[in-house]
Design a protein that fits this description.
single chain; 7-stranded mixed sheet; 9 helices; 28% helix
Length: 378
C-alpha cells in the first residue's frame, strides 16, 4: 500500500516559501535584463515581425523550467515569478531580494501594490492537493493561570479549529496591439508588468476582503465569525468613537499584532479626512498616513454599497486587524502561468496575454479582525 504523504506544517511551508523566493531572486539577478516580457510574448506568437533575441527567450525558458523542476508543477505556458514583475531587472544589489527569510518585507515585495499582500499577509507557495488546513487555537485568558494559595489549578483546555485554504482559479488578461508589441519606443516590459501587477493585486484584494466564497475565496467581510460592530440602526457617519471602539474590539482578542492595518475605500478615506474629531475643532478623523497609529491601506475593494436598515446600498465597510493573519496560498510557485493568444484577436491585430494562478485565501485567525459595515460617507 502506498504511504500517504505527510502534510507539511505551516512553519515548514513558510520555510519552503522563503527558500523558493530566495532562489527566484538569485535567478532574476543572474538573468538580469534578459528577462524581457516583450520578447517572451513575441516568442509565443505565430508570426513575429522581427527576429527574436534568442538569449532572452532562452532565459525565460530556463527560469520556467527551474520552477517546474523544483515544485513539479507544469505550466500551460511559461512560469513568470511575481518578483520578475515587481522589481527593476537591471538592479542586482538589493539584499532584500536575496534573503532566505520570509519576513513581511520580502513577502510584500511580491505584490507591493496589493493592500493585503503589500500590507503583510502570510504568503505560502508550493501547495498541493485539493486544500490545505491551518490549525488554529482560541486564545486563553492569562488570568486563568493565577490562583490563590490552596486553590485547585484551573482545568482550561484550548479549543482547536482549522482555517482551510482551497484553490480558486485567478485569471487576468491584458490585450496589446501587434504594432505596440513591435514599437521600440515603448517600454513594453514595464507596461505589461505594471498592468499584470495592478490586476493581480486588485483580484487578490477583492477576494481577501469581500470574496463571494464560490468562484472566489470567501472574504473577511463574508466570514460569519467576523466581529461586526454597529454604527446605527440605519448606519451612521463615522466618528472618533467608532474608530476607538474598533481598535478596542481587535485589541481585546488579537493582542499584539504583527502587521496591523486599517482597510478602507477611497470614499471612506475622503469622509474621514473631512470629518472633524470634535465639532468646531482643528483636527480631523484621518490625518497623515496612519490612523490611531496604525497604517491605512486604501483600496476600492472595500465595499461602499452595503445596506443597513433604511440606508440601502450606500453603507461603507471599515476593517481593522492583523494582516499577517490572512494566508494567501499559491498552488505551485509564487508565479503566474503566462499564456499568449494571438488567434482570437488576429483579425484586429491584437494579442491577448493571459496570466493564471491557483490561489487560496483565508484568515488564519478571524478573531484578529473587526469591522463596521454601516458607515455613511454621503
Amino acid at each position: 500500500m502506498e504511504a500517504t504523504p505527510i502534510r507539511p506544517t505551516l512553519r515548514e511551508l513558510q520555510r519552503r516559501t522563503a527558500d523558493e523566493l530566495g532562489l527566484q531572486a538569485q535567478s532574476l539577478q543572474r538573468y538580469g535584463s534578459k528577462l524581457d516580457l516583450r520578447e517572451l510574448v513575441l516568442s509565443k506568437t505565430r508570426h513575429p515581425l522581427r527576429p527574436l533575441d534568442e538569449r532572452k527567450v532562452s532565459a525565460w525558458s530556463e527560469l520556467s523550467e527551474s520552477l517546474r523542476q523544483r515544485g513539479g508543477n507544469v505550466p500551460s505556458g511559461t512560469w513568470v515569478p511575481l518578483k520578475a514583475l515587481t522589481r527593476d531587472l537591471t538592479t542586482s544589489n538589493s539584499s532584500s531580494l536575496t534573503t532566505a527569510r520570509l519576513d513581511r518585507e520580502n513577502a510584500a515585495s511580491l505584490l507591493p501594490s496589493s493592500a493585503v499582500i503589500g500590507g503583510g499577509a502570510t504568503v505560502l507557495s508550493g501547495l498541493t492537493g485539493s486544500s490545505y488546513g491551518i490549525t488554529t487555537t482560541t486564545p486563553l485568558d492569562p488570568a486563568d493561570g493565577w490562583i490563590a494559595e490552596g486553590d485547585p489549578a484551573p482545568q482550561r483546555e484550548p479549543t482547536f479549529g482549522e482555517s482551510r485554504l482551497t484553490p480558486k482559479s485567478l485569471i487576468v488578461t491584458v490585450t496589446l496591439s501587434r504594432r505596440l508589441l513591435h514599437d521600440a519606443a515603448v517600454d513594453v516590459n514595464a507596461l505589461l508588468s505594471r498592468e499584470l501587477v495592478t490586476r493581480l493585486s486588485h483580484a487578490i484584494d477583492l477576494a481577501a476582503i469581500n470574496g463571494n466564497g464560490t468562484t472566489q475565496p470567501l472574504g473577511l467581510l463574508g466570514n460569519a465569525d467576523l466581529d461586526v460592530l454597529e454604527a446605527g440602526a440605519n448606519g451612521a457617519a463615522p466618528t472618533w468613537g467608532h474608530l476607538v471602539d474598533l481598535e478596542h474590539s481587535v485589541a481585546t482578542r488579537a493582542g499584539q499584532m504583527a502587521a496591523p492595518a486599517f482597510l478602507m475605500s477611497p470614499a471612506l478615506a475622503k469622509k474621514l479626512r473631512t470629518t472633524q474629531r470634535v465639532s468646531g475643532g482643528d483636527l480631523f478623523l484621518f490625518e497623515g498616513r496612519d490612523l490611531l497609529g496604525y497604517p491605512v491601506r486604501v483600496t476600492p475593494n472595500v465595499p461602499d454599497n452595503l445596506t443597513k436598515g433604511t440606508s440601502s446600498g450606500v453603507c461603507s465597510a471599515l476593517v481593522l486587524g492583523d494582516l499577517a493573519e490572512i494566508a494567501v496560498g499559491f498552488w505551485g510557485p509564487a508565479a503566474i502561468d503566462l499564456l499568449v493568444d494571438d488567434i482570437t484577436g488576429a483579425k484586429d491585430g491584437r494579442v491577448r496575454i493571459i496570466a493564471r494562478a491557483d490561489v487560496g485565501i483565508a484568515p488564519i485567525r478571524v478573531g484578529a479582525f473587526a469591522a463596521f459595515k454601516d458607515l455613511l460617507t454621503a
